[in-house]
Structures are given as structure tokens and as C-alpha cells.
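Z., the sequence and structure:
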Amino acid sequence: MDETAFTILEHQASDGYIWKYRKYVARSPREGEAPAEPIASGLGTLDRPVQDEGSAGASPSRGTSLPSRDTSSPSRSTPQRGILVFIHGIQSHGGWYEFSCMTFAQAGYDVYFLDRRGSGMNREARGDAPSFRRLLDDIAEFLAALPRNVGRVKLPVFLAGISWGGKLAVALERRHPGLVDGLILLCPGFYAKVRPTLWQRVGIVFSRLFQPRKLYPVPLNEPELFTETAYWQDFLRADTGRLLQATARLLVESVRLDGYLRFCPKYVHVPTLMLLASEDRIIRNDWTRDYVERFATPDKQIIEYEGAHHTLEFEPDPMLFINDIQAWLEARLPTQQ
């Protein structure tokens, strides 16, 4: 019986920051191997990199995936069909999305879920980032280093941006075009309904000038904003990986990213799928829909789920959106596959 395993690996950015990501691959258990236990913690097994003591502080000229101790290279039970790379929202992390990632991996995709620097598994500089351009460069360096060739076939790469991560996915098309073959936007945060209070915004601007690493609450700390499902609300309350605070610098960079995005629609030439939730309390669906309609690509599709809330993964039947993504991907895979 097929199973899905994920490994946690590390990637070193060109500025020296080392951040963690999950890699999911569907495989069959090797002879004599017991099936994997169900993942309950949302953390999996940490696969720490091998790194010489003397090279720990070295900063390569480009992003590099550090070598891992995992040399088993489990045999793939399904042929590689493509590559899916996920980037999460301002507060979430890869542990929220294990079910969908496992499902995509079982369908034959190599799935990578990147935890943003300062978020999720990445404890260094918690809630901070030097700039939105540095975050875009982190993604670009990772994508550029991905192995894509299987025999004579070059695997397509699709970038999926969730909530705030949707802003990064679209901005990447302007700063680093040509790295992906399609975009999937899940309730992207181009236009937020929720933001800091006026006095908080004044304090954030002041702190950006004099105390850029001062922390402020992320204005999304109520689980009810993400889902109406009681189980997942309890999950969010107990989740120690949620980013509840961000630095003044990161919050100001988010606003600067909004300005950058104003000029991005003309740069989006790749096929785009956007999924919206009709009961979303975090983003403005009407403005978001109008924004995506302005993309230069003629191949864009928008699906809105009636009665759904912001985090589609937490809906009672997440297979609805997963099946729609799979169908969209199927229609855009190379014909030889």
C-alpha cells in the first residue's frame, strides 16, 4: 500500500539565513519495512543537515539546499508528474496543510512546503524579515535550485500561495519571472479586511524608524477568522507554531509589498487558478477577484466555495478544493505525461 512520507530539510539563503521546509514524496514501503505511523503532531521527523563546523557561518553566493542525512532515497510508487511548491500566510506554517500536501504527493507530485524565514519551524529572527524583496529572493533561490529533469522530461513547477503568501507568489512574477509554470492562489491576501488599529499603525511606523524589531500583534489571532470548524479552532488555539507577533519592519514591508503589487498584474503571464471562500472574514473577495482579472495571462480560472471560510484546508470536506486543484493541474501538464 502506498504511503506518503515527508522529510524536513534546510535551505541556506544567499544572505546566510537557514530556513526549513517540508518535502513530501509518495512511496511504497521497502521490503521488511513497517508502514509509517500516522502523523499527529504536525511536525514529522526532523532531518537535520550535515554541515562541517568550519562552514557553519559561510554565506554562499546563491541559495543552496544543505545536504541531508537521509540517504535512503525511497523508491517512488507513482511517476513524477510535476512539482508543487507552497508558501503560507502571515501567521500560518506548513503544519496546517499536511493533508492536502500528502494528497498531492500521492497523486504523483513532488510537494515542497516552505516555512518563511522567522515563521513556523524557523525560530531565528522570529516574526521578522529584512524586506519583502529578501522574501522573494528566498523563494526564487529555492526554485532555481530545484531539480526538474526526469529523463528527457522537464517537470512543470507550480507555485501555490496561501493567504499572505499569495502576495509573494504574484510579486515573484515581477521580480523573478520565468521560474514557475503556473500559479495557484488560495484566498490570497491582496486586500485585507483586518488590519492593525490606527494607533497601532502609528506605533508601527514610529518603531520602524527607531526600533525596527519591536514586536506587534498580528491582527489575526482569533481562530474564528480562519474556520468555523470547532476541531480546527481548538487546533489553532493550541498551535505554538502560529506567528502571533511580527516586527515593525515586517509589518511595514507588508505595506510596501502592497504598493509593489499594484504594478504586478501585467507581469503575470502564467496560467493562474484562484480559489476563494464566500464567507472569508480576512480578505475582500470582490476586490481580489477584480485584481486577478487584470492579470496578463488569458488562462485564469476563479472558483468560489459557497459557505467556506478563509482556510480551505480546515473545511469539513477539504477534498472539494483539492480535487479542483488536481483537475486544473491535469489540464496543464505536458502532453507526454
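Residues 132-145 form the longest helix (14 residues). The chain has eight helices and 13 strands.

Let me know what you think.
H.
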